[in-house]
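Re: the 285-residue chain
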Amino acid sequence: PCHGEDRQFKSGRARLPGRVLLSTVLVVAAANAVPRPANAPPRPWYELEHRVRELTRDIILNDSRAVFRAFATTFKQETDFARFDSALQAWHAGRRVAIGRGQVIDTRGVSGRASSWVVFAGGADHDYIYQSWVYAADTWRLAWLSNILDRSFDYGNHDLADVRAMRAATLDWLITGGGLAQVPPGHARPDTVLVIDPAGTADWLPDYPTAVRTPEQFQARAGLPATPLAFRFVLTRSFGPIGVSAVDIQPLAQRRGRMARHRSIQVFLARTEAGWRYLTTGSVW
């Protein structure tokens, strides 16, 4: 269930009763009466709901510029606006939106998930747009729009030195910062860290015993070191002031002749003058 009021948007104009309008003005005035410190933590539902409502409105109005501005810094730096506008226009396909609604699904630390649905004029089916958000630079920033973007809109991972630094900080927190204890059923620090990497090299690894294998070498299970866990980075992305890594953690012990179930963890990092450091844990699945 969504916490807080869920707003509907229509293409036509709506008239608000006087009491509702006055209440809205008073609420907005109260919210803005006391400025919040720049480093204040996010108010997950209140602030993200507001951003989701704005985004849903802008999608309904087909306002490409406004939708584009909602994205994280690195997306806007690395994505040509004309290309993004083409993707949004292709999704609209010349249709007018009759009604739409957006709501927050959940928040966890500096990450949030939301969804919006619209019904196009003359249609009856709902078209859904799922969103990922991150709290960066003192506000919620859009990280992804499903059904509008495809995988060709990859971003935030083209600076290889930055990617290596984020991976090193993530692995260091998992191994030495207690991160493995947050991954069910809880794991002790391995003597040797086994990393699965497509290139078969990982010169970014922290300074402790490590081994690297390609996915094919790992699948063949030949010559693997005596270690209980293997680590595979499935996503590393910078949003500007913060970054994220998603890591698969695969136990090597076999159960009934098959490998035990792997777990995944989402780790958010903060960019500092000294480099990337652990910020918070996102989803664990």
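The longest helix spans residues 44-60.
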